[in-house]
Amino acid sequence: MTTYAVTAASGHLGHLVVEELLARGVAAGDVVALARTPQKAADLAERGVRVLRGDYSEPDTLREALTGVDRVLLVSGDTPGQRVAQHANVVEAARAAGVQRLAYTSLLRADTSGNPLAPDHRATEEALAASGLLTTVLRNGWYLENYTEALGRYLAAGEVVGSAHDGRVSAAARADYAAAAAAALLADDGEDHVHELGGTSFTLAELASTVSEVTGTPVAYRDLSTEEHVAHLRSTGLDEGTAGFVAALDASLAAGDLQTDRDDLQRLVGRPLTTLADAVRAARA
Ligand SMILES: NC(=O)c1ccc[n+]([C@@H]2O[C@H](COP(=O)([O-])OP(=O)(O)OC[C@H]3O[C@@H](n4cnc5c(N)ncnc54)[C@H](OP(=O)(O)O)[C@@H]3O)[C@@H](O)[C@H]2O)c1
After folding, report:
1. Whole-angstrom Cα distance, residue 285 to residue 77?
2. Dihedral sign of CA atoms 237, 243, 249, 255 in order
3. How does residue 146 score in pLDDT terms, banded at 50, 70 and 90?
4. Among 81, 106, 117, 205, which residue's CB has the most CB atoms within a 10 Å radius?
5. For ligand 1, atom 46, which residue shows the shortest CA distance?
6. Are 203 and 259 a contacting pair, CB within 8 Å?
7. Class level of CATH domain 4-142+173-197+261-271
8. pTM for this entry
9. Helix H segments across the chain?
10. Which atom of ligand 1 lies at the shortest distance from residue 146's CA?
């Protein structure tokens, strides 16, 4: 019997991974869901999953929750500035608890990417490599939800505004990344793996035309320079730091950091991926 643990199970991705493990036939009693806020994963406890407190900043909770676990998915934390140390706590707790395989949700092309989020992921990948554990690096691209959650804004403004030029983004649905993570946890060939994960790529102009086609409301892409983009974001109320960060994400997209032609995601998921048009349709409904 193999026991699986998923961290941040109170969040969208972690929760979906637990659901996917159950859907793929893992017994609920063989799954440990770690959550900083266990009440948010109460529905999983009701289904027989062991929901335990696991806070990346409290190593004792991690060691205790990972005792007896064979394979762990570490979902990256959401606190820049703290998360390298937090992830190191999980890696150390997994090692101390005798975990065999540690999987981690990293970022597409984390080893070379100029994306402002990449350094944290790179440092965590290095900690994984030094751990002596079997490792699976899941280098996730952008979520389609990053765009579909802004659908109302696009439709109200009649435009998508960015500074990604003709850069392509291989975004995919969060649920597809979750399915890939579950499949990667279930597979065990005794090897280390690095998966570059993303869906069919599109430019932000193609995003705008897909939104127009699916909704019937004309939406154009307005491409700006980085400086103009920062000024535009400031005019919508963002502070200087946040505006600069958002524009830097588009610069990373323009540089090709968020594109992959690899079919790792499709192969792991084993069924057709959610397309951009599907995601826009679902968000509209
Ligand atoms: N590729 C992309 O486009 C993209 C987009 C957004 C995020 N991400 C990354 O992917 C991760 C998962 O995404 P998501 O959609 O599931 O995000 P989410 O729904 O916001 O969930 C974030 C999770 O991180 C947990 N967390 C934060 N600090 C923690 C700590 N100290 N100890 C334990 N858990 C902690 C939160 O716990 P609580 O429930 O207690 O708050 C929550 O469960 C994010 O954390 C971020 O690193 C990627």
Report:
1. 30
2. positive
3. very high
4. 106
5. 78
6. no
7. alpha beta
8. 0.98
9. 12-23, 42-46, 59-66, 83-96, 118-129, 145-148, 151-157, 174-186, 204-215, 226-235, 240-254, 264-269, 276-284
10. 3
